[in-house]
Amino acid sequence: MAWTGWLLLIVRFVLTECLLVQYYCKNVIHFPFSSVSCLFSILTVADSAVIPLDNSIQSVNETFMYFAYGSNLLSKRILSDNPTAVRKTIGVLENYRLDFNIQSRNWNGAVSTIVEDDDYHVYGAIWEIDISNMDELDRQEGVEKNLYRPLTKSIITPDGERIDCRVYQEVNYPDEFYELEDLPIDRQPSRSYLNCILKGAYESQLPIEYIYDLWKIPHNNQDANNFRFRQLCD
Q1: 128 a catalytic residue
Q2: Which of 141, 144, 176, 179 is an active site residue?
Q3: Full 3-state SS string of 11-25
Q4: What 3-state DSSP class applies to 90?
Q5: What is the DSSP letter of 164?
Q6: Which carries the bigger pLDDT value, residue 6 or residue 41?
Q7: How far apart are CA 139 and CA 123, in angstroms?
Q8: Which residue blocks in 61-207 are alpha helix, DSSP H?
């Protein structure tokens, strides 16, 4: 790789680390951002969190591709209910925007959805999952309770390939459009849920500009009611 390529990688790494440090210090562990002890502790955690994308594992069973843009960006979260999931790459869903709408009792705040919008796009992780886990994924997403519906969408990978993926959208659309950084309190995710998304975005190696947009989302200053979720994401 040319020296310019290495330089871009280093810049991306430094910017990502700075965003994570600022978020964790201010919103998760409540250290002042200038705290040296906070800086070193968070950098240590962040370095250990990155998991390389794996394109080498081939399943012997029938599988489907799933596009995750919310809490299932984080490997610990999706693997807790779908143990066959393998993250293959990342991708972008065009002509949709990320939004938050329905309140979740488990998460103690609003959870994410996608909404048709020609001016936006949504980045996420593409997982390959054994077909035997599809019912469990539907249950996790609340399909039987009519909270989310499964869609099949074409996701564009960094190398330009299009992959048809299962993706979930809330059945009830948000009543009003807000920029993510201006979400009202009843549409804000909990601290635990947002933390899960941010960790997963970093772990999945989503674009730094997109991670920065996620970092600007306000949370409702609440932790998840579900103890398992708090353990996974906090």
Answers
A1: no
A2: 141
A3: HHHHHHHHHHHHHHH
A4: strand
A5: E
A6: 6
A7: 23
A8: 75-81, 134-140, 191-204
pLDDT of residue 25: 45
CA distances from 55 to 90, 162, 167 (A): 11, 15, 20
Residue 62, token pair as written in the block: 């029938």
Under a CB-based contact definition with an 8 Å cutoff, are residues 64 and 129 in contact? yes
State how far the Cα of 66 lies from the Cα of 77, in Å rounded to an integer: 14
Of the listed ranges 56-60, 61-65, 109-113, 227-231, the least confidently predicted one is 56-60
DSSP single-letter state for residue 29: S
Phi, then psi, of 71 in degrees rounded to 5:
-65, -25
Structure-block tokens of residue 8: 């871009």
Mean pLDDT calculated for residue range 159-183: 96
Q: Enter the tokens of residue 108.
A: 């103690």
Judge whether 83 and 73 are in contact, CB under 8 Å.
no
What is the C-alpha to C-alpha distance for residues 207 and 189, in angstroms, rounded to an integer? 21
Identify whether the C-beta of residue 100 lies closer than 8 Å to the C-beta of residue 219: no
Alpha-helix residue ranges (DSSP H) falling in 69-218: 75-81, 134-140, 191-204, 208-215
